[in-house]
Amino acid sequence: MRLGTTFNFIVILLILALGDGYFCKPAMAQDSSQDSSSKPYDPLKAVYANLDHLKAYAQGFALMQKGELREAEPLMSRILQFRPENPAAMQNYGFLLLRLGKFEEAIKILNRALQLDPGQVPAWGNLGGAYASLGKIDDAVSAYKKYIELSKNDPQIDVYKSMVTILEDQAKRQSAYPEESKDDYYIDAISFKGKMNWPLGKNPIRVYVEPGDGKQDYKPLYMDLLKKAFWEWSQASNDKIKFVFQNESGGAQIYCRWTDSTENLIARAEGGHAKVEYAGPVIGRSDITLLSISPCRAMPMNEQFAHRIYLHEIGHALGILGHSRNSNDSLFCGVNLSIVDGKLSDRDKKTLYLLYQNQLAPQVVSAEVKKRCEKNYGELVVFAEKAVNRGELEAADDLYGRALKQLLPFGFRDVRLATVLSRSGSLSLQMKKMLDAEITLRAAFNLMDSNDATDPEQFASCCKDLGNFYWQNKEKSEAKFYFERSLNLFKKLKRDAEVSELERSLKECL
Ligand SMILES: [Zn+2]
């Protein structure tokens, strides 16, 4: 049954893209500019005035390179008074405005740089970033394409190419759903592969964060920022989604790690990515990979940047699979290049709420539809069990998959959903469909772990199957976690045969 599906998901937070060519050297005074006042022209005075502006601009440029952008702005803006016709200086000032989040102004200045000199290549890249930040996707794509055309030797050209891919993909999705709500981006969040989420209930979602020690440019502070970002999402859900950080990787439901190699990311430009695995409507596991280094040399990885990437990736890991069209949202499809610190917008919060609301209150369907689904479900399960007894595992798996669909109107609290997933996962394991087995069993586990009404016997078998799966995969710490859970459940049920079998398995894990 095609219950288990993996969904690789790219994220891109980044764009930003300033390679070495991204800003130009400070514009140098070439000749004195004419004083427009009616006083007799004093060449010396004009030179001094110019020198004054030039000094200020150079100071501003140095501050920008150090990352002190707000301080740089009043100094660099003096370029408008003394060298408004210098394309390189206009490009640098436009880049600064972009970083300050003044996108409209940046576009004006960058276009001016390009009018003065269409060969002012970095301006095309920055213009792409500014348009993308305003959600003007077509303009952003043309500007990026122009940059790619003009700078074939840029070693970071793949960053731009992957941005184009992502923006074009977003444009396609937007054309499928041209109407967007003002208050949320739910339609974009789920339009990728349908809706799926984490079962919420008695237990928090277990998160393991592999420390990034030893990775290039990694700082222990990033661990705190990541945990803070998890906390912010939890707050946004009014504490309905809870996380617990565990010290061991075994049994983790969200696994986070850092990498210092862009090779490990799905696309070159990514600041990170999240891989979400799900069976039916239930997430089984999410893996978040984050860059410890900056994907582009001219823009260092720093606190604000890291925090924005972390909020974005956690959003994906929670089931917001698509992107927002608005650069104020954490799940924005491009990169907000500004230095403004990231925070969850009201639209982020509303989208999360809509994603999880049906789970809290089952879908509203008529009594008649519910009755029909119940009946279909009952019949399909009977057929599935008969097929298992005949040893027709494929057929049984398919029947369980169809039974699962009948349960969707009843919500996540309905224990039958977990039972069907658990049986299906067990069949996948017997048929050696390892990927399906893992995802489906984990989804079943998540449902049962969060529900007080879970059947302990079914839960114990699901844990045992998961233990066996990881044991066969030689993942000892995972195997140990699930064998222990299974052992405790079987002990309570006083099932001696299972208990001694699991004790033997656990000994082998140690
Ligand atoms: Zn993303």
Textual characterization of the structure:
There is one protein chain. With 510 residues, the protein is of the alpha/beta class. It folds into three domains: 4-13 and 183-360, Collagenase (Catalytic Domain) (3-Layer(aba) Sandwich), CATH 3.40.390; 20-30 and 37-154, Serine Threonine Protein Phosphatase 5, Tetratricopeptide repeat, CATH 1.25.40; 367-509, Tetratricopeptide repeat domain (Serine Threonine Protein Phosphatase 5, Tetratricopeptide repeat, Alpha Horseshoe). Helix content is 55%, strand content 7%. Strands 1-5-6-4-2-3 form a six-stranded mixed beta sheet. The two termini are 35 Å apart. It binds zinc ion. Zinc ion binds next to helix 11. Zinc ion is lined by residues 11-12, 312, 316, 323.
Q: What topology emerges from the helices and strands here?
A:
Layout: E1 4-7, H1 43-66, H2 69-76, H3 79-82, H4 87-99, H5 103-116, H6 121-133, H7 137-150, H8 157-176, H9 186-190, E2 205-209, H10 220-236, E3 243-245, E4 254-259, E5 272-279, E6 282-291, H11 303-317, H12 346-360, H13 367-389, H14 393-406, H15 415-430, H16 434-449, H17 456-472, H18 476-492, H19 496-509
Parallel strand pairs: 2-3, 2-4, 4-6
Antiparallel strand pairs: 1-5, 5-6
Helix pairs in contact: 1-2, 2-4, 4-5, 4-6, 5-6, 6-7, 7-8, 10-11, 13-14, 14-15, 15-16, 15-17, 16-17, 17-18, 18-19
Helix/strand-derived category reads alpha/beta
Cα Rg: 28 Å
If strands are numbered along the chain, what order do they take across the biggest sheet?
1-5-6-4-2-3
Per the CATH scheme, the topology name of the largest domain is: Collagenase (Catalytic Domain)
